[in-house]
Write a structure and sequence with these properties.
alpha+beta; elongated; 2 domains; 12% strand; 46% helix
Amino acid sequence: MDIAAWLRGLGLEQYESAFRANDVDAQVLPRLTAEDLISIGVTSVGHRRRLLDAIVALGAEAPPATVPIPAVAERRQLTVMFCDLVGSTALSARLDPEDYREVVAAYHRAVADAVRSFDGFVAKYMGDGVSAST
């Protein structure tokens, strides 16, 4: 399918470069959402509605999402943890910023080592906090 010709047929050829720059082709087109169209620069509600209606008219509605179900179900335990350095605000007021940064970095390393020892991983460092899971 020629996306550029399709857009021209709708009178929306001004979006041709946006579709091309975002690799929208015949396989992607049926799955476009209003949010996708906004993100590629289709700011007009009327233009988004025309595009979405034209996609439906092509008979290319998005197929229902299917998730393969394994033959044998498996239940796994997940532990999620958030650690925060207690008293860090008071500590930051007493220490030089570079010294405080070193204390927090040492704390992050200690938490990461402990999490790794349980085959976990650190998802995110947030200030003096650590989000992790195993």
